[in-house]
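Human: I would love a firmer grasp of how sequence relates to backbone shape in proteins. Take your time, and here it is.
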Amino acid sequence: MTAPTPPPEIRILAPTGALGAGFRAESLERGVALRPHVIACDAGSTDSGPAYLGSGQPKLSREAVARDLRLLLKARDRLGVPLIIGSCGTSGRDAGVDLVAGIAREIAVQEALSFKLALIYADQDPGHLAQRYAEGRIRPLDGAPPLDLHTLTSGHVVAMMGVEPIQQALSEGAEVVLAGRASDTALYAAVPHALGADPGLVWHAAKTVECGAACAVPPAADGLFVHLRDDHFDVEPLDPELRLTPHSVAAHTLYENADPFLITEPSGTLDTTDATYAALDDRRVRVSGAVYRPGTDYTNKLEGSQLIGYQTIAVGGIRDRVVIEQLPQLLPKAQDYFRAKIRDVFDGRVDPDDVKVDYRLYGRDAVLGPLDPARDEPVHELGVLITVTAPTQEIAHAVATFVAHASSHLPVPEYAGLASTIAYPFSPPETDRGPAYRFTLHHVLVPDTPHEPFRTVHEEVAP
């Protein structure tokens, strides 16, 4: 099939880095005035941890998402161009797609809007995953944890889509696409890629705008605009108070990426090794030179999250040099005491191995651990985060009560009598956090087609 001839210029509006993170309404208006061919917006990430995938709850509030979505749907209606939103509901679970779709339907009624809606679902069926696992078509990425069939098929798993399911939905008439878990860049690459633009430029432009004005100076929750042409693209912030520099644009290739030049997508790799960045003025940057290298296999990244228990925390502080110096000896002894206490209090009904008591000392090792270059310097003050993880919230809370109590009176050899070791700013010090999750997968699926892991539903939305 002959590749389409791209138009002389393709214009892309990226209003913000995450649906619900916000943007200036004036910035969106400026973007609309530039007549984009597509509006695209990411709505999710794994940056904030496994809880959103595990629970199905979004990170950003319904009100914040509705505010942004209302403005984007109205802008799309005025322009008559596609609106693409991916990783709905933070995790891209089916529940997230349905949540955003419900908000879109409400807005359509309130604003008298009509549009053809496509919902692309990314939840994975455990039976299908088990089959692909048996076939050797689920492969580990570098640093992946060990994987067995039980881990793969328990918890919740989504697949990350590329451009192909989005392009198919558009070709079938969709005007608004609400997608499950998706490559951030695929949202912005889908339309220009389908129009036949140079793949290297397309994917590099998509990488540049995936987080909105996060690569602006200063970084902001706002938008960027791209003019994509045959041998370069120009990018500018929509807020006139912001600016881009060659350095800020080039630096964004490192964001969420292990390699500063190679960015892996489901269908291949963007190589920015020979890319050039030139300032057009003090706000706009021209980019050229990247190439896109198709992969030997098409792969979809899998993301999984699993419930590990329930947590209760206590936050305190220590400002006593004698106590701080004794902590390396005191905390292991405290752990032994807590194990015995759990056996005693619960009369053998709770296995101490099923309960984890963790101390994180802010001011010593909490962030960098043994890699901290100032690790051996004297410390005069520590923040203490105590986390108890157990099979139920009731057990976690019960254990936390005696852990917090005992931790505030650790036996310091240098002091005679009872001494206070940790001060708690809250009364009671124990706070129930609820369910806790862990990521289970850092793997890819090798599908038969780019569409295999996903399901698309079309509907007409009208007031």
Summary: The longest helix spans residues 321-345. The two ends are 40 Å apart (CA to CA).
